[in-house]
Amino acid sequence: MAYGWTGKTLRVDLSTGSITTEDTIAKYKDVLGGIGVGYKVMWDEVPPTVGAFDPQNRLVICTGPLTGSGSPLSGRFSVVSRWPNHLNELPGHASIGGHFGPELKYAGWDNIIIQGKAASPVWIKIVDDKVTIEDASQIWGNGIYRATAEIVTIMGPEAHVLACGQAGENLVRISNIMCDRKHSAGSVGGIFGSKNLKAIGVHGTGPVKIAADKQTWKDLTYYYLSLLGCNNQGVVPTTPQAWAEYYDSGTRWTAQPGLYWGAASPPVETGVCSAADLNKMGYRTHKGYKDYSAVGANHTVKMDGCHACPIRCNIATDMPALEPYGASRYNMNTCLGNSVASSLYATSGTGDNPMLLAQMSNFLCDDWGLWSDYGMWEALFKYCLSHLMTAAECTLLGLPDTFVGKNTFTNRVPAAEMSSIPWSQRDASNPAFMQFIVPYIAKRKGVLGAMIADGPARMAVAWPEIGYFQNTVTSLNSFKMNHIKHHGVENGGQVGALVNMAFNRDPMNHCHSNYISCGLPLEIKEAISNKLFCQGNSIFNATDGSLGQTENGAYGPITMHKAAFAAASVCGIVLANSLTTCNWTLPIWVSPLKDRGPGKLEYEGDNSLEAQAYSAVTGDTLTQKQLETVSLRILTLFRALTARYMEYYNAGDGKNMRTSHDYMYDWMFDGYAAGINAFDPGTNKMDRADMDLARDLMYDQFGWDRATGMPTAATLANLGLGYVATALAAEGLLP
Amino acid sequence: MADIKGNGSVNPGEIVVPDGVAEFIRGIVTRREFLQVSGALGVGVASFSLIGCGSSSTADNSTPRQVFVANAQGMIVAEPTRCVGCRRCEFACVAFNEGGAQPSIAKVKVNRNYLYGVAGAQVGYARGDGIFGNFRVVQDTCRQCPHPVPCQLACPNGAIEVVPPVNARVVNSAKCRGCGICTQACPWEMTSLNGPVDGAKTKANKCTLCGGDPECVKMCPVGALQYKPWEDRTKVVPARHVVPASIQLSADIKDTCNKCH
User: Fold this and answer.
1) How many helices (DSSP H) and strands (DSSP E) are in chain B?
2) How far apart are CA A58 and CA A37, in angstroms?
3) Do A208 and B101 touch (CB under 8 A)?
4) Pairs from B20-23 (Cβ < 8 Å, separation ≥ 24)
5) Which end of chain A has the smaller Cβ count within 10 Å, N or C?
6) Partners of A122 in the beta sheet?
7) How confident is the model at residue A1 (pLDDT cuts 50, 70, 90)?
8) A contacts of B125 (beta carbons < 8 Å)
9) Nearest to A526 by CA among A550, A509, A542, A543
10) pLDDT band at A56 (very low <50, low <70, confident <90, very high)
11) What residues have CB less than 8 Å from A301, skipping those under 6 apart?
């Protein structure tokens, strides 16, 4: 057994019932783990001819060397496959937390590669090295809550379960798989369903071995903890506090006197949680209060989160008012997970009602396995109800005149179906509306249910106005390829744009946004970023420049400094999803500690923490630069894989990723009132020529060809991806 | 965290046993005699014998096994309302003692109660404990039982000993043979094996209180674990399982019991 890795990868062929073991180190160490493994499996085994729901498609559940090690923030794992929600099912990944990934490691497995399709519904039972395929006929058709409970009843209380809901069974493209009640891997629920796979239960009793001696590991662990802030690595409190030099209402360090987990019995006061008090880290972020103010504080029982993470970001709520609806009063999730279906309302009401709607959404969506898609389909749903088509739009899109003055659902959904939907409940902000609409989508009912279930990209094909809206309507926040932005141009201007260009779905990237929103004064952040990205501390570097952020919120034109920051951010998330760690908080570029000792700037974090943790756990000593190089290798492999698929669907696209893939919707350039110019204070309006240069500079950082956006042969060779270069050359995709 | 780190002393006056038994012990075994007995044995485990009472032999007949033992001086108190289920306590317990990451041998146990509470998954779980219910997550900690200590007395090898400075009940790995009887004997299932029953390298693990400075307490990010002066919690915390009738005192211990009872 290796340190960090268990050394074993499990392969389950549901068509044949074959269960085999492969050597993780021999096959995958060069790509670390997580999405590195996932994309290598896809590169090696899944040609573009295989669709997401085809039996030959692989679903790769992948941990990394840090998963389960107990290193802070190491509870997450990745899920890689062809992405059902993407129009061309380009390769994609989900990052998911909870306790399932660590438990898989304790059972002795780094990864599970699932292929084939079972003849009838099954679940996979893993107890250490004993792996069996079990009959799931009794739990098929049930929600995730019951599936989990029934499997834990069989396996015992220490087991953890990853399951799809009815949405996944019905091949809904916005379905997920979930573990530990509230942790979701988006869009891949349908792949479970397509394989007749309901769930995976795992219990492990073995170790993840740590190479470092106990004292070294302990010292590193406490050092690591000392540099952590709150959720999203805000490093100052939201209110003035005696221990803190600065405060910023924008961080999530909400702890303060008089703020309670109000629904705890008895209530628990978060109180003052200074940076030095590691026994109060879990109180720093009160997400209930952050998201729902006093109402949220009153209904929060406690915070929760992932395995081994002291930064708790999930709200556990108690809302007895849900019980008359037949819903559980207790629910748990965070951020968008709280509002999957509650976003569908025109207004959410007042008082407790917005939170009531959100928790009903939790209760339903986390059971039926309906994914938020980070808000994309909900935003479209609302727009399809609220926007009345204009004559100009109908002319432009070639739509019939009869569409003018009516909303999209009225135009597209049969009248009988529209009248069967209880819109009055929606208008009244009544939680019962979700009890209708969530199963309606999960079961693909009617035209509306089936269309939503197929996701925004297919909506845009079937109903052309949807694609037009995504390209032009600012409020929809769609970025490109029908996927929503995630910390886009509002986070660092070009930086957020470049980060969102890099992936095939919303990037789930927080490296840049966390840094920008950490709460420290501008001059401190500028000094730290200058050190990190202009002085050789990273493989991503400029000779000079600035992030260009000003106090009034303006962003200057692109610089190499910004491109290096963006490149480091992109590779930061790739690294997090490979090790695997949490990018909702990492990397630790800033810290809550003012005095950082010799060689460190005030409030500087430690850019090498991942390398230190990786080296301590695995015994394979790497510097941060070396680890960044591995991260760039994984990103570049992903790039090549994406280009291969792009080329298959539209000849020429794979040869020119710069224009076919790395674009952004027009609303980010044009969706502003006359007189507002790019780089004006307070605007996020972007400039096309500036973004062209931004792409050039980021490609330079990655060693990719400026003209095509594809990795060069030299870069592939330098990254140890000679086998990729050979294949790309044969496929005509090498620049 | 209260600092009640032990100083190595043992005060027989703190021993909590039924009054009649205590009186009997004091009558026949003075503290002086106690020390003399220990010193006379001189087998290199004097620190253990100092706080032991009784002289039944262990399986290998090389050391006296403890039967009557002094109370622990500290205990770890868990507060389920505060617990956020991160399991960093399980991590610290193993990482900084045995080394590595292996929750199955952690001496503080959260995982088994995390999803569905102590009662487990069953009908009505949505209103029960755990994160699929009302979010109450119970952290199981060792009670550091007073005499008669179930795991200690059930061990056929005398491998569970009372160790200063805080008199924690500790597995002596040199004596432990991995039979797993202690895991059955503890009503709260607080001991665990690091391998298969009777495995060649299998040893039992249980809470040592980290010598009075518990790693789990220091690691908890919400202060849900506290180190406190010992109290007898065995009468008020419901047992987690029924100790099988087959788990009985070995004959040599019974002989010693007869001296007091």
Assistant:
1) 9, 10
2) 12
3) yes
4) B21/B260, B21/B261
5) N
6) A135, A197
7) low
8) 149
9) A550
10) very high
11) A261, A263, A264, A265, A316, A317, A318, A330, B134, B135
